Amino acid sequence: MVAVRGYRAVMPASFPPAAARPDGVVDPMSLAFAEARAAASRGEVPVGAVVVGPDGAILSCAGNRSEEWHDPSAHAEMLALREATRIRGGQRLSDCALYVTLEPCPMCAGAAVHFRIGRILFGAYDPKGGGVDHGPRLFARPGCLHRPEVIGGLREREAQDMLRAFFRNRRMS
Ligand SMILES: [Zn+2]
């Protein structure tokens, strides 16, 4: 069998223990953080994303793969949204939630519209690169085809600290 590099979400090496509570329940945001940390260890900007189905089941999870795949569009959100849709046989994601450690960029916010994601919960705000609460504010634009419910600032401090530490280390190396 030939291995084909596709836009498959890759289960983190830590799945599920790092993100699981003692009762075995996996908290989606903790899993997104685990994906972000795994991305950082691969030299990627630490962003992780998870898509949760209507019953609370985790459909997909991914971290950034832009460096590894030489693909600037391989953002965690894009990979997780694609995988979730694939798993659901192409069904739109209007009854699903996207958890992501950083405010989505304009590309990912635009993709979220196309995937019809129902809800976006993100960690750190991104005044420079964000496209939801900053920059183009995509969902607030007139004519936006679909407006997901958005909750920002979930575990914001932790998400900010993770990004700052990554960029500090990168500057020093
Ligand atoms: Zn993005």
UniProtKB/TrEMBL annotation:
Binding site for Zn(2+): 75, 105, 108
GO molecular function: tRNA-specific adenosine-34 deaminase activity; zinc ion binding
Keyword terms of this UniProt record: Hydrolase, Metal-binding, tRNA processing, Zinc
Reactions the enzyme catalyzes: adenosine(34) in tRNA + H2O + H(+) = inosine(34) in tRNA + NH4(+)
Domain (CMP/dCMP-type deaminase) ranges: 27-133
Protein family membership: Belongs to the cytidine and deoxycytidylate deaminase family.
Protein name in the entry: tRNA-specific adenosine deaminase
